[in-house]
Fold these 2 entries.
Entry 1:
Amino acid sequence: MKKFDVIIIGAGPGGIFSAYELAKKSTFSVAVFETGHRLEKRVCPIDGDKVKSCINCPVCSIMNGFGGAGAFSDGKYNITNDFGGSLHEYIGRGTALELMRYVDEINVSHGGDGTKMYSTAGSSLKKICMQNKLTLLSASVRHLGTDINYKVLGNLYEELKDAVEFHFDSPVEELSVAEDGFTVTSRGETYFAKKCIVSVGRSGSSWLEELCKKLEIPTNSNRVDLGVRVELPAEIFAHITNELYESKIVYRTEKFEDHVRTFCMNPNGIVVNENTNGIITVNGHSFEDPERKTENTNFALLVAKHFSLPFKDSNGYGESIARLSNMLGGGVIVQRFGDLERGRRSTEKRIAEGTVRPTLSATPGDLSLVLPKRILDGIIEMIYALDKIAPGTANDDTLLYGVEVKFYNMEVQVDEHLETRYKGLYVIGDGGGVTHSLSHASASGVFVARELLKENA
Ligand SMILES: Cc1cc2nc3c(=O)[nH]c(=O)nc-3n(C[C@H](O)[C@H](O)[C@H](O)COP(=O)(O)OP(=O)(O)OC[C@H]3O[C@@H](n4cnc5c(N)ncnc54)[C@H](O)[C@@H]3O)c2cc1C
């Protein structure tokens, strides 16, 4: 049986930054097991020509492989404790911010130099938001863009590949507690490690759930966020995106006092399909490369739904709603805001006559048949609230794509070291429900690596 000091399961941002820190600061033998392919082999077959929609590959290249779910993301790297996860609740606000800044420095030195850092500090938008019943959350954000993000990942891999043993196309099937460590089984081989870091992200949630059941590690159910992706001419939001790039704005609805928030803003970007367990939802990207910029800006409007007992399956609820949109539209549905307000579906003709050219080929339809009334009412109220700070948001031709769903993993019980009830078994990143962003997941990876270094000191 091959033995390592540390085995890391998952090569997303969490796993990569654990591996990076261990490779740089220790002589530990480290292996990383990853379900998906190496970076350059990660290719989604959707080409918009021969393959127009998801064909449910056995391993999704968008979600799995070196770089994890973030590899083809917009690479918006937020440095804040206000959103992106609750890492600070475990390791402290100061440490969390310090680690996020540290990862940012590594990204910058591995190809991200020249990218811009935006900040809400001193922004006049804060006051304008307050005056219109909106709250602008505080953050600094580095926008790497999908292209530079990919370059940074490539450079990190080049630097790590000789110090760390990477096993791609190697899902871990079994993890068991052994004497003085853990055994891990992948592709019929069993490996031993003294310490094990589990960083399996959203796509590894079912596997992790089973593992927690087997090892009797307590978990708590979590929330689901539901909503739409808004697409409008970039000029309408330009005064906000030019200054802040990504702004997280929260609105408390008058009708139900629910919170609706903006999420994942992509100036001059594109709207894309996202496949989660075979269900097609919507997301967005943008590029640093001027040639790939579009005339539109997109962002999500999301409402968080928390459930109380006896219902525990918040992700199942989100999936059912997304399935409904797939049933009606064969995938993502698009609707003009004016059509939604008039209580009618959008058609190819109405979309074509509109002034906003859609960047995603979606099925024109009626989102009121999909989203629960309370959520849709909240989104409509928010669009009118945003219209006050960005006039034109509530134009008839503004496009709404649905549904956008943000699934959260159940929270795995870990202590302030991100260690489970088994000494030496750590759960980090989105998989454990503690983080939901590139920055928090990466920071959790560095944090645990440093915990191992401390123990060995
Ligand atoms: C389209 C898209 C855009 C996004 N944009 C942004 C953004 O701009 N900014 C931001 O902050 N966040 C963004 N996110 C979220 C961000 O990507 C995640 O928060 C982050 O990747 C989480 O990192 P992680 O390491 O915890 O998990 P992941 O990145 O999900 O990585 C987990 C890895 O573990 C592997 N794995 C799973 N199970 C196993 C197993 N049993 N054995 C071996 N390997 C396994 C998976 O294949 C995967 O590669 C985006 C996400 C998506 C999908």
Entry 2:
Amino acid sequence: MPQLISRKQALDEISKQAGAGTCLVCGLVKNEQVRLLCQSAEVSVILSGYPRFWGQVMICLNRHAERYSEITESEWQEISRLSLQYMSRRSAAHSRCCKPVRTCM
Ligand SMILES: [Zn+2]
């Protein structure tokens, strides 16, 4: 049975791991080597340590950014490429493991 914790508890734990004054996302990219699924020059794919659903991944820039307008075209393309890759894998794994029943209209 999974342990349920509040969002605040999860954020407090992530903040503690990141270190005082460090951006939470930059802290994850720097510290989550165990859950790191893939890392390109610009983007990291990390399996969430505090998932809202099993298999939740986070796709993060390797550098600090606070606004979408700060993300370069190259970074957007890499985010898109890795999002599609990992969503496809998760979808395939879900179908294999859970054999979901499809409904019709
Ligand atoms: Zn950051």
